[in-house]
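Please predict the structure of the following assembly.
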Amino acid sequence: MSGRIIVSKPAEKDSRSDSQLMVDLCDGDEDAFSEIVRRFQSPIYSLLIRMTGNEEDAKELLQLTFFRVYKYRRNYDPEKKFVNWIFTIASNLAKKEWKRKSRWMSVPLEHVHLSSPVSTAPHYDAGRVQLRASIEEAIDRLPSHYREPFLLREMEQMSYEDIAEILGVRLGTVKSRINRARAKLREMLNDVWEEWK
Amino acid sequence: MNCRKALEIITLVLDDEATREQEIMLRFHLLGCPSCRKALEFSRDIATITRSLQAPPPPSDLETRVREMLAREDIETTVPRTKRSALLALPAVAAMLVAIFIIPRSHDDEYVACGTTILAGSMRNEPKTASVELTSKSRLTTAPLAGYSRRSSLISF
């Protein structure tokens, strides 16, 4: 039995801009859609997990986000940032889901119990792991209208202008919500942080 | 500058959104305010750790799933809603026609069906236990209805 070893070349990086991919998709280039999925699936999924609080909902909304990108591809204005457009779609879907599940109510701070390390002198790294877990928990407990701009800023490194566009709020509102999110996180994490330091 | 204003500027500094003037004002304030110094350091740690948080990888079959959804959407939009409901109503219409044209003649021992298509359609829905003979001129007659009650024919539809 004879055979050939086929060495597949690694896929070449697509150098097209996000906007160009959308233009090409509208012209019938299906590969452009594959590239869009490849580029944005991780950041959108990461945000959706933080916003919904569970993987199942996040997966469903992620799928729906790309479905809408394709379905409404002709509504996209190539003069505007694609990243803002797709994050707006994901954000709106998450808000709809919150409304559906009535998750708008925030957890009062006095009800939040963050576990602190029990050892008297925790190792630095162990303490950092503890702090990381506590930060994750505290972010999940932020009211959604503080959590969303905070995550877009910290995890996606977006500018205030972009966040305002995605959320459909004023620039001043974005600044104040991020400020409030940080203040609440400091309040919730104070004991854990003091111990870690 | 009071602490409330300082905390607002701390957020801007962390996000590289503060003006040069705001940075200088904050620096002066921090010299004499350990509480705001702590807030700045604490916020920096939170930011650093938050940025390092990693979500699990997205599902590997995401694109396939999306394309499946799109394909389903295509099918639904290709067949107009009116046609879809017409297709769904077809068995019911067939049953009604059979009831109108065939059942009233059930006093005869034997009868000929009015429409080939209708009867052929209705025969497929008849219970397997009912015996059917195709013997008349039109080659489409049913068995004598003596052993085939109205109740059983209704149940079969």
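Confidence is low (pLDDT under 50) at residues 109-124, 126-138, 146-157 of chain B. The CA atoms of residues 44 and 74 of chain B lie 49 Å apart.
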